[in-house]
Amino acid sequence: MGTLDWRIRPSPPLSGQCQVPGDKSISHRALLFLALSQQGGRVTGLLESEDCLRTLAALRRLGASIDQLGPGDYQLAGWPDQGLVSPDEPLDMGNSGTGMRLLTGVLAGAGISATLSGDASLCRRPMGRVVNPLRMMGAAISADEGKPPLNIGAHPGLHGIDYVLPVASAQVKSALMLAGLFAEGETRLTEPGPSRDHSERMLNGLGAQVDVVSGRLVVQPGRPRGGDVAVPGDLSSAAFALAAAAARPGAQLRVEAVGVNPTRYGILRLLERMGARLQIENRREIGGEPVADINVEGAVLKAIRVGAEDVVLAVDEIPALLIAAAQAEGRTEIHGATELRVKESDRLAAMAEGLERLGLAVTTREDGLSVVGGRIQPAVVRSWGDHRIAMSLAMLAASAEAGEGVVIEDVANVATSFPEFPAHCRALGMNLEQSG
Ligand code: S3P
């Protein structure tokens, strides 16, 4: 069976106005947090991508009552009177690391036995970072070599721990916070760096008690009351077009109603450091999250040096940043980015290969890579089955000045976060054809 591919022909600079679909991280959390809440609530603007629909399906299999009211609009009834039920078949979380890690926290907390599995990419990803601290809390979980499938068993009850996370990870932090809601005593978490804080914001908004005390996150036991959640546009999805427009003179782009949470907007600061002409306006709040409209005007950008302190605030946007780096003057260096090797693909290796095939000079190191900006050449490139690699290479391909275009192979995984991406690209003037 052939793969789904794109052919991108040289295209004019991006031009137009758009909105991006709902934030993936916030969508997963809205479903999980409302399902475990006492009274439930309604979520609007939910991202209906494959990853989030896996979380939704898993919750239904566990006995959560979720009714669809319209596109992206769902009513959740909250924790069932009889509690969640143990499923007799493994729950397939597909490609979703967030879905698997956060749901593990909920199931371990509630003491529900279940097996969580996923696709080949998810089954290669490290789960010890979630499983080990959950075991310290009293959970019964087994995982061969720390990889999925995860077998979660019943246990007499969890207790809070005081734990220092080995990596800055919102997924690990959130899984432990969720387990902490069901534990006896406080759960105290210290992170080595500032990962995204959507869980803290949403849990507090729904009535749970999560505070920062002397630099530590302190979770009080007790399930949240519930309430309504509105999901803002996903900055990680907007990042591809924002970076592409910023790096190409003549481009004019406006993205409306996109999340600009400071623990997520590292990409905007990095583009600004490269000389990008960004204007962030109409700042407002949606569901406890800062939101804004972003205007960008294309310019010739300059290379920068990106360090570990930048990567943590743009952990999913380094491939998008490389769209700009590949067109900037000079050598952009990325350091402190080893976490990218354990995402949906090894993103350092995948981007290095793609950039090289497109004609750019790339050097790789264990913790990062460097690329010298230059001209994009026609080529056949691989996505490595990773949505963010496919979308980054597509944006870069569009800025080739001449030639018969670039083929990007195996792009089906884009449906995990941004199913409308091809239509979004065409609306902004890109010449993108899909085949296979
Ligand atoms: C996410 C956290 C990040 C990010 C992922 C989504 C989340 O992972 O890469 O795409 O929703 O919590 P880590 O927290 O493991 O770095």
UniProtKB/TrEMBL annotation:
Q: Per the record, a Pfam family?
A: EPSP_synthase
* Major localization class: cytoplasm
Cite the CDD domains for this sequence. EPSP_synthase
**Protein name, UniProt field:** 3-phosphoshikimate 1-carboxyvinyltransferase
Binding-site list for 3-phosphoshikimate: K24, S25, R29, S169, Q171, D316, K343
Q: Which domain of life is it from?
A: Bacteria
Task: Write down the species.
Answer: Natronospira proteinivora
Q: What class of enzyme is it?
A: transferase
* Entry similarity comment: Belongs to the EPSP synthase family.
Which reactions appear under catalytic activity for this entry? 3-phosphoshikimate + phosphoenolpyruvate = 5-O-(1-carboxyvinyl)-3-phosphoshikimate + phosphate
Q: Which residues bind phosphoenolpyruvate?
A: K24, G97, R125, Q171, R347, R388
**Does the record carry Transferase as a key word?**
yes
Show where the Enolpyruvate transferase domain sits: 9-422
Transport listed as a keyword: no
UniProt GO molecular function: 3-phosphoshikimate 1-carboxyvinyltransferase activity
**Spans annotated as Disordered:** 1-21
Q: Where is the signal peptide?
A: none
